[in-house]
Amino acid sequence: MQREESAGLPRPVQRGLILLATLAIVLAAVARLTGSGHVTLDGSRPEQVRLLTFADAPDGTVSVRDASTGLEIGTLPSGSGGFARGALRALARERRLRGLGPDAPFVLTRWTGGRLTLDDSSTGAHVELGGFGPDNQVAFAGLLAAR
Known about the structure:
By secondary structure, the chain is an alpha+beta fold. It has two domains: 10-39; 46-145, no CATH class. It has three helices and six strands. A six-stranded antiparallel beta sheet has the order 3-2-1-4-5-6, with helices on one face.
């Protein structure tokens, strides 16, 4: 009497697939338990923090103020500062969509290691400024040093 072959995969292929699936589960569990392969930020700490507010002027410039003192520390002239203006427009748009006003400050932070971030304290939005290139990061770096 001859055994009939099933219409499925051959037995060695089935065993190989089961072994592969088991191996994937075991490796995922080991990675999860040991933290192997887990990507984290560099553990840097804030080196310099400045609270900023931005206001559009009638002539198209953007006034930049230190939120702690209320003093104007700079302006973004009309037609320049494309990256900075674009980033601020996106953050302002998010505030408008949520029905929030422009009064809450933005948090500009320089971290140990040199990276810069801009956070919106009212929406929780976070922008890694270095992710858009060093020239664009420079646009905001000057606001930390301004007096």
